[in-house]
Amino acid sequence: MKKELIPGPIGVFDSGYGGLTILSEIQKLLPQYDYIYLGDNSRAPYGTRSFDVVYEFTKQAVLALFDQGCNLVILACNTASAKALRTIQQNDLPYINPNKRVLGIIRPTAEIIGNITKTRHIGIVGTPGTIQSESYSIEISKLHPDIIVNSHACPMWVPIVENNEFNTEGADYFIKKDLDSILNSDKEIDTLILGCTHYPLLIDKIKQYAPSGLQILSQGTYVAESLKNYLSRHPEIEDSCTKSGNTQYYTTESASKFKESASIFLNKEIEVKRINIEG
Ligand code: DGL
Question: Which of 42, 139, 189, 256 could serve as 123's disulfide partner, Cβ 3.0–4.6 Å?
Answer without folding.
Answer: 189
